[in-house]
What does this fold into?
Amino acid sequence: MNPYFLASRASWLWLPEPTVLIATLAQQVEDSGAGRIIAWMGDEVPTQFGGLFAAPGTIADQRELTKRFVRAYVKAIELYDRAFQRPGSDGRPVRGDGYDELIRIIAERTGEAPASLAIALPYFDREARLEVEDIAEQIEVYQALRLVAPALKVDAVLDRSFVPSGRK
It folds into this structure.
């Protein structure tokens, strides 16, 4: 192993070779000459990488608010898709409707530079579909690693009533 150091905003960051980094940090490492991006994780290991979470008490006590939030999230994904995920003639994403405005809003809220965000924008399913089978597979992996109880099932962590109709 050949460790190297990278001066980050707040402290020194030690990175072994190879490592997985968030896209904005990976780009900083490559731009500094301290490392090279050899692959994007999403290209090598396709899986859902996030979701919407709410505490059971929130769902019970504020169900209508939670439903409205999910509807707003789905609408935001549609805007995101139009701005950031439309393919060009070469198949790569092009700047779509609302790109400049949305990248500005995201930059303001995250404190990241728009140029850093442009290379780090994640993919979102354009219809905000939930792949329940993928969640079940992830639970099985965690069970095999003894990180969650063997009896845990998808329906214990997923409230399907919030999944938009016509979607998985």
In short: The first strand starts at residue 4 and ends at 7.
